[in-house]
Amino acid sequence: MPPRGPHFSRPVYEVLPWLYISLGLATLVASYLLAARRTLSLIVGVLGLVTLLGGIVVLLRRRDYRLLRSEYADPDSLTGEDPR
Questions:
Q1: CA 30 to CA 33: how far, in whole Å?
Q2: pTM of the predicted protein model
Q3: pLDDT confidence tier of residue 62, bands split at 50, 70 and 90
Q4: Higher pLDDT, 1 or 5
Q5: Cβ contacts of residue 35 below 8 Å, gap of 6+?
Q6: FRET partner for 81 with CA separation of 20 to 30 A, picked from 7, 29, 60, 70?
Q7: Phi-psi region of 16 (alpha: psi -120 to 50; beta: other; left: phi over 0)
Q8: How far apart are CA 41 and CA 29, in angstroms?
Q9: What end-to-end distance do the CA atoms of the chain give, in Å?
């Protein structure tokens, strides 16, 4: 198995979605402030929207991963059978 690349610590992974969302919102505000320069405002606005959506996607994917992982920790929840 080939060696894997460097990994971030868990607290860094926990902060990343919120960092992306904050950066996206700040970029959207900057886009609004640059309204006088239409082309630049459009480019910054699209970049902010993509960053914001990326942060939301990462946040939701992490939530789904945690849910799936918790279901695997309880094998009975995967079969749909009541263990009682």
A1: 5
A2: 0.72
A3: confident
A4: 5
A5: 41
A6: 60
A7: alpha
A8: 10
A9: 42
Kindly tell me the burial class for residue 58, based on how many C-beta atoms sit within 10 Å of its own C-beta (0-12, 13-18, 19 or more): middle
Residue whose structure tokens are 């959506």: 53
Select from 70, 29, 76 the least CA-distant residue to 48.
Answer: 29
Q: For the segment 7-37, what is each residue's pLDDT rounded down to a tens digit?
A: 778 788 889 999 999 999 999 999 999 888 8
Residue indicated by tokens 């902010």: 48
Q: Give the tokens for residue 51.
A: 């960053």
